[in-house]
Amino acid sequence: MLQLLLVDDERSVVETLAETIPWAECGIGAVHEALSGAMALEVLENNAIDVVMTDIRMPGMSGIELITQIQQRWPHIRTILLSGYADFEYAKQAIAQQTFDYLLKPVSDEDLIDSVTRVVGQIKAKWEEAASVQKALYALNENLPLLRSTMLSELLAGKAYAAPALADKLQLLDLPYSVQDEFNLLLVRMEERFADLSAREQALMEYAICNIVSEVMQDDFHIWPTRDAHDYIVILVKRKATASGGGPSDAASSRPLVERHAAQIQTNVHNYLKGAISILVGGRGVFPDQVRDIYDQAVRSMRQKMGHVQGLFVMMPQNAEPANTAVNAVWSLYEPPTLMHLLEAGRFDDVESKIRRIFDELLRADDADVPERLIEAYHVLAGAFAYIIRKNGKQLRAVLPDEAYRHFQSPAYSTAAQLHEWALRTLHRIRDDAEQELLDNHSTIVRSVRSFVDRQLAYDVSLPAIAGHVHLHPVYLSKVYKTETGEALTEYVYRLRMEKAAFYLRTTASKVFEIAELVGYNNTAYFIRVFKKYYDVTPQEYRDSLHQPQG
User: Fold this and answer.
1) DSSP code for 550
2) Per-residue confidence at 1, pLDDT binned at 50, 70, 90?
């Protein structure tokens, strides 16, 4: 939904338009108000306005001067001029400033709605064009290295793709890999002076190293680099088709060539970048199933064989196996997105699905109830649960029932099934607490809004003023209020004004213009107009009807 700014020096005009026009039906999600050109510029500075509807004749800055500044500073904003002067000179100036429309006061609701609907359609058409395939492909090509790096990072972390999705993404990113392709892996650690560089300088050096890798290997291999969480440069390499035109060589026969190239890379980095790197030539594997395993073996070898010694060149066995398959980790615990990330995002359904996957993996294993595996699962789950509760500013005891809390003090489980049941119960309690807190927060917002509107009804109760009072963005406030009450905030303000006006007409002898001011209308004619629109009678007719004898 788009955002619209109404500008007029008469408060009653902008508030009437804000309250009585069905903006949502026109495609407008939030309506801002300004009583002068200077106020309008301030609103424009602080909000993503799409459409400005302004009066022409205002004290100080005129509407023409305002839209001139808008065109200079925010050329994407569409403008509509309102004027009570049927003067062609104004129309010519409006056209010169590329104003979308020019409406004469008093403008009918139908004409105004038609104009806004058309300008919203024009804006949406513009954004649809901006999101065209050609521009999307251009953006894709601009960001291709980053997107490729991100995908490899996901594979290293164990992300699984369905076969069709994997094929589509590889094709989209122009990566020459297919299921069951063989690959080798290089692990590069930047050392000596590289380690002392700033983050920006390290990124530039990483780029330079990858360029050297490409220059050395590009004739024989497809190169796919990324940077991992340990600040290693990880490079997947796949042999290109042989010079004779046959199929690609397998990874085993490519290994000696990979090793020679890796040694050359190390030398070139030393000679041309004046720094040291250690390189580990990892084992070979089958894409994509063994990417994570080969990578994990390489990282473990880097840690165990290289340690803090610098400038090393290490080659792993071609068919390296995990050191002890009997104590493999429960990988689902660590696959992205992690439990902590999902909990932080409030994606509770996804958290529950992940927990079920964790225990599916655990229960499928022959050693599902081995204490070490249960301890591993418990501590990851308990750590994630405790983290999100504490990050939300609460204590575990305040959120969890006694039975669940006791598990944190003294874990009591003997089987994976028992631990699974505890994990789901704890998750459901955290989710219920979060949902209740959200409801409480929204209820507090609604009460605060209504209290403010009731106190300020004779003054400024525009959407920006209310949003400023509760310290929320106007668009978000509108959504919260509509969700909680089923009524748009502007509709509530309008209804309250009319109901209070009727109350004063029934219970006081105040004149119509005095009642208009009491409910926030400085222009009596506008007040009469909106009152009649709401009750089908004028204020005086409404009052007179109260004294007519009942037949």
Assistant:
1) P
2) confident
What string of DSSP letters covers 234-258? EEEEEEPBPTTS-PBPPHHHHHHHH
Environment class of 119 (CB within 10 Å of its CB; exposed 0-12, middle 13-18, buried 19+) = buried
Mean pLDDT, the chain, rounded, equals 85
**Predicted confidence (pLDDT) per residue in 272-325, tens digit:** 888 889 999 998 899 999 999 899 889 888 887 766 677 888 888 766 554 444
How many angstroms separate the Cα of 15 from the Cα of each of 34, 422, 494?
10, 55, 9
Backbone conformation region of residue 213, classed left if phi is above 0, alpha if psi is from -120 to 50, else beta: alpha
> Which tokens go with 223?
């190169």
Q: Which residues lie below 8 Å from residue 476, measured CB to CB, with a gap of 6+?
A: none
DSSP tally for the chain: helices H, then strands E: 24, 10
Q: Give exposure, 388-397, as e/b (b: 16+ Cβ within 10 Å).
A: bbeeeeeebe
* Reported confidence tier of residue 249, pLDDT bands at 50, 70, 90: low
Which stretch of DSSP H or E encloses residue 278? strand 277-286
Of 315-329, 390-404, 465-479, 506-520, minimum mean pLDDT range: 315-329
Q: Is 388 left (phi over 0), alpha (psi -120 to 50) or beta?
A: alpha
Distance CA 276, CA 312 (A): 9
Peptide bond into 337 cis (omega under 30): yes
**Strand boundaries in 71-181, DSSP class E:** 78-83, 101-104
Nearest CA to 109 among 4, 16, 11?
16
Selection from 432, 439, 441, 359 nearest residue 400 by Cα: 432
**CA-CA distance, 63 to 79, in Å (whole number)?**
10
**pLDDT at residue 73 tops 50:** yes
Quote the CA–CA distance of 392 and 386 in Å, as a whole number: 10
CA pair distance 452, 447, nearest whole angstrom:
9
Q: CA gyration radius for the chain?
A: 34
Cβ partners under 8 Å of residue 274, min gap 6: 193
How distant is the alpha carbon of residue 387 from its chain centre?
22
Of 534 and 413, the one with more pLDDT: 534
Distance CA 277, CA 266 (A): 6
Q: Report the residue count for the chain.
A: 551
Residue 298 and residue 317 in contact, taking contact as beta carbons nearer than 8 Å: no
Q: In the block, which residue shows the tokens 């989209």?
A: 172
The runs of H, that is alpha helices, within 218-347 are 251-273, 291-301, 339-344
Q: Which tens digit of pLDDT belongs to each residue from 328-352?
A: 667 788 877 889 989 988 899 999 9
Relative to beta strand 28-34, strand 2-7 is parallel
